[in-house]
Amino acid sequence: MRPKLRSVQVSRGEEYGQQVLILSDPCGLSDCAMVLPASLAPVLELCDGTRDIAALRTVLELRTGLRVGPDYLEKMFAALDRALLIDNEHFARVYREAVEKFRAAPSRPPAMADRVYPSKSDLLEQVLCGYFDAILPDADDQAKADEVRGLVSPHIDYQRGGTVYAGVWHRAAKAARDTEVAIILGTNHFGGKKLITLTRQSYATPWGVLATAGDVVDAVASALGEEEVFAEEFNHRNEHSVEAAAVWLHYLVKDKGCELVPVLCGSFQRFIEGYGKPGDDDEVARFVETLRNATADKRTLIVAAGDLAHVGPAFGDRYPINILEKARVSSADSELMSAIARGDAEEVFQQVKREGDRRRICGLSAIYLALRLLGKASGDITGYAQCPADEQGTSFVSICGIVLA
Fold first, then answer.
1. Which of 378, 323, 396 has its CA nearest to residue 148?
2. Where are the domains of the chain?
3. What pTM does this model have?
């Protein structure tokens, strides 16, 4: 047996006074989390399918001085296998079956219902109305809304980001109601190596179903390759970014409805590390050109569902974020938002690259692609917030709302 650990979600914790690692399945195929001693980290880091268990036991002893019984690792990997955290035939079979079930379902059910928002439409309407009531709309809002072609909306939970959501969707309300097809580009938090991930599945909300524009999806799949754009399709099942925006959209369009093009956008890390630029990337160019052509005769709204900075110990920083650092992040976010409002996709990317993505801008790819789709654009910032990300107040996520004409 040469175990290969999947790309799993890992967090740290403490149990009975000892540091532990908590491993869970980001796809949600298994709800069983594995809790392991933090001292086993060297073994897990080397589980790439090239070493057998005897070699891993030797590595553990050499690196940490920790000796384990002859069957300790065997039992550990058996438990990891049961939790679907090992990349093997067992996982592949379960994954295939889950993908088939996802595709065969009448629609993609809401993943955040009763966690982030009520699953009952009347209660959800009250919640969203409350957020709209909490903002003070500018007198010019409705006049400017006539020109809106796109927007940047958060994908954080509504409890923390509700007023920022309300600010941008209020300004985009007329455009949303008039749209025939909405392209929602959301961060693929579960993504592997794929830059663009599509689905032909429609998205359900508490108000019904937003039908996916199959002809548009087919056109992009034909241009980029079916295998390429659907390889990580299952991530749509639990990914919240597109859904977070789709709920606000559906609230505004209600029974009129509109078609949806749900797109999960993978990481730009390879570009940040210097392996080319998104502006020169053939896949990006074909995606943008094909999507523009496929929606050219339709009233289209382009939505980037992306948050900004993720800073503090909750995201791996060594030190708590103090008032001074909050101000620095706010200043850097302001520069980034200004570039977005100018419609300058390349400057948005360059700003993040220059700092090595130190602030972890998780909405970068979605925002960049939205700006490329819009072409020449300019807009207004409708809101900004730094949302707490831990109980100590030492970490936060920054979010914004921007409308683009």
1. 378
2. 9-100, 107-404
3. 0.91
